[in-house]
Amino acid sequence: MSSDRRHALLTLPKYLHEHSRVLIEIPIRIVVIILVALIFRAILVRMINRAVRPIRVGEVPRILRPFKERVENSALLESTGLLSERRDQRAATIGSVLKSGVSFTVLVIAFLLVLSELGIDLAPFIAGTSIVGVALGFGAQNVVKDFLSGMFMMLEDQYGVGDVIDFDKAVGTVEAVGLRTTRLRDNNGTVWYVCNGEVVRVGNKSQGYAQVVLDVPIAATADISAASSAMLAVAQQLHGEQAWAEAFLGEPEVQGVEQLTREETVIRLVARVRPVEQWRVARELRRRIRERLDRMDIESHLPAEPSAGPAPPTA
């Protein structure tokens, strides 16, 4: 055995003893940090997944219980399954954000602890990360804006699957809600994709209740009292029918003369109905009122084919 090899064998224990921290302790600590981070992340993700899934079918997921739910348990949404779909999609989106946040936080902390174990000064690294973060913030500010707007929209439950909403230039039924975009389909079947960050205001026609406001124009020489009585009778008859009773939330009311001109008199009828039912009820009221006034020889100026509003959501 050569003298160099004999010298290396003799000095190996001393070298291992002097460098045991670098060769043994630091790698073990790094492995422990990584394992603890992965286990901790897995536990948190599992807890979030359990909170996202409802215990029973039709039940509100636990992750949504602290947040306000603006939608009413209308028969329409329940019968079509859109209420459960709305809750599931909202819970899944919020859960996805929480899981991403947990993963990012845990992994960043673990990464910084590993760098600290390696003896790397974190001050320059943090400063450089801040500069990169600012640069990315300027470059992707629209994407960040979309995500933040979508997050707040989800938490506040401003709208969801099955709602009929008005984005000013796009009006239709919501089919899917994400953190970055919202997808809706209008009455003509066109699918619209709207970036959440671009939404300045939104009108939700499916929350709480809807109002049927029906202005019926009749000839200026017609009997106003007879026309008003006929309109109210038609509305009350519709309200009393079993097929239509669930659509109403209150008794219909004739408010009186809304407008007077030389050619016609406009009489207003209002009725509070369930969300998304206003267009269907209004169409039926127009048809029946027109027929009743024609039978009474009261000249009405109602259009023969009233315009249709957005169709009710379907499964």
What does this structure look like?
With 315 residues, the protein is an alpha+beta fold. The chain contains nine helices and eight strands. It has helices at residues 3-18, 20-52, 75-80, 82-117, 122-139, 141-156, 224-240, 242-245, 278-295; strands spanning 164-166, 171-177, 181-185, 191-195, 203-204, 210-219, 253-260, 264-273. The strands form two sheets. It has a five-stranded antiparallel beta sheet with strand order 4-3-2-1-5, with no helix packed on it. The protein has a three-stranded antiparallel beta sheet with strand order 6-8-7. A hairpin with a 3-residue loop joins strand 2 and strand 3. Helix 2 runs antiparallel to helix 4. It is elongated and about 120 Å long.
List the SSEs and their pairings.
Blueprint: H1 3-18, H2 20-52, H3 75-80, H4 82-117, H5 122-139, H6 141-156, E1 164-166, E2 171-177, E3 181-185, E4 191-195, E5 203-204, E6 210-219, H7 224-240, H8 242-245, E7 253-260, E8 264-273, H9 278-295
Helix pairs in contact: 2-4, 7-9
Provide a short characterization of the protein structure.
With 315 residues, the protein is an alpha+beta fold. Helix content is 52%, strand content 16%.
Oligomeric nature of the chains: single chain
Count all strands and give the number: 8
Strand order of the largest sheet: 4-3-2-1-5
The Cα radius of gyration reads 33 Å
